[in-house]
Amino acid sequence: MIVLRVSSPPKLKNISETSISIGGESHSLDLRRFPLQRLTPEVW
Q1: Which of 1, 12, 24, 41 would give a disulfide with 6, using CB separation of 3.0 to 4.6 Å?
Q2: Is the pLDDT of residue 38 over 50?
Q3: Is-above-0.85 flag for pTM?
Q4: What is the DSSP secondary structure assignment for residue 40, as one 8-state letter?
């Protein structure tokens, strides 16, 4: 299970990264590599 947490209110013009929590570890993710449909902060 991957939980996406958006650290600041989404601004689609300058979203750069979110914090991803995987097994308690924090990882940085560059959202510019993902299509906008997948940017919703939810479990996927």
Answers
A1: 41
A2: yes
A3: no
A4: S
